[in-house]
Design brief:
The protein is mainly alpha-helical. Helices cover 56% and strands 3% of the residues.
């Protein structure tokens, strides 16, 4: 009887041990994906679609415009991309097109869907 108990315990350990280290193939969740992205990728700053108006100021005009747009979005109750709060995005951001591999500038993305944000923050870029 002692041998039978020992065999059962040993068999259970052998069956369960590989299950602990096996990869399940799950994709990282939204919190994992968002933690891996850096600020430039999130905001689309690396693409530089608004570069013509910021070229002489070293990005300070862009920073001021981003701050204005962020304040406007918060006042409107929208997320960082101009959509309702709580909107979920495949890949963690709507700025990356997985089909083409292209990134979209965050401000251009917002201005495309919310032209009133561009109008509300138009004075900030020309102020400097």
């Amino acid at each position: 009887m002692k041998n039978l108990t020992g065999v059962l315990v040993f068999s259970a350990v052998l069956l369960l041990a590989p299950g602990c280290t096996r990869k399940t193939g799950e994709a990282p969740g939204p919190s994992d994906a968002s933690a891996a992205t850096d600020e430039a990728a999130r905001t689309g700053a690396s693409k530089g679609a608004l570069g013509a108006e910021d070229a002489g100021t070293g990005g300070t005009a862009r920073a001021a415009r981003e701050a204005c747009v962020d304040a406007w979005l918060q006042k409107q109750g929208l997320d960082a991309y101009g959509n309702p709060q709580g909107t979920m995005y495949a890949g963690g951001t709507p700025l990356f097109d997985e089909r083409t591999g292209e990134r979209t500038d965050r401000l251009e993305f917002i201005f495309k869907s919310k032209p009133e944000a561009r109008q509300a923050c138009a004075g900030d870029a020309s102020a400097e």
